[in-house]
Amino acid sequence: MDLEIRHLRVVCAIAEAGSLTRAAASLRMTQPGLSAQLRRIEAALGGPLFDRRQSGTVPTPFGELVIGRARAILPGIDGLLSDTARAARRMTAADRIRVGSVGAPLLGHLLLAVRALLPEADLTCRCQYSPVALLDDLAARRLEAAVLGDHPDQELPQHAGVALHTIVSEPVFALLPAAHPLATRDEVPLAELLEEDWAVPRPDSDRTPEYWASVCTSAGRAPFAPYEAEGRQLIEIVRAGLAVSLCQATFIEVPGVSVRPLAENPLWYRHLLAWHHDGPLAPYGTEILRRVADGYLATCSDSPVYARWRELNPHAARPVTVAP
């Protein structure tokens, strides 16, 4: 019989239990079965490992040698098995892809890319406002990929093992009630927008309100923001004519609101994709970036205001170019 790792575990279990009966119970074996296995192990090693006494089992000097070596070896073996199992899960985890996203136009394109490249994957997603929280979840491997965003001079921190890929930096536009006088303009001066009441997102770890306020202050005054809201609620406040706000350039106008570029493009937003260097999406990274960048361009054409802005600014807000 060749000696195996499981045989060393048996020897250590007997030594720790102090009797074959207790060791058999801990190993979920019968006592006769354990006795037979011990005899085979002793024959393979070349000598008795335990003295069988009425009070239990006591290691022989030869057994002490074997037990000492086994206890030195097994932690290293367990570490190796743990590390290789973890690595194997990472390589084969393509059956479970968890995606997180901020509110951005890239999520659908990312999901479609993953679905096309890994059609058997169990693909799920969840959205939240803060990119920092999503990045933390990604670094902790609670997500396999994320759609993120940040602002100039407020870039997201780097995390070991996480790759951040810029898709595009785009201008931030004004969001106005459709009947607002500024909605008749082709572009809106920030200084005039600051004369209105604002609706802004709640303060969060992405620091969007802080970024807006810092740029607005440099333009002459901080925005007066009596309304704090996000998503649909923010749009409803603007639609009601109570306030103005800012939005992503790809925001598609809905009845009751108008989107207009800001004169001289004072505010910008960067769209990013992120995944693990050694995660299940890493081998497909180039193709994912290409598909998402192409999808972003298609999204741009769905927003007439942004499409027009891009025609007038052909060298700005170009998504990353990825070779096929």
UniProtKB/TrEMBL annotation:
Signal peptide: none annotated. Residues 1-60 form the HTH lysR-type domain. Keywords: DNA-binding, Transcription, Transcription regulation. It comes from the Bacteria. The keyword Transcription applies. Belongs to the LysR transcriptional regulatory family. This is LysR family transcriptional regulator. It comes from Streptomyces decoyicus.
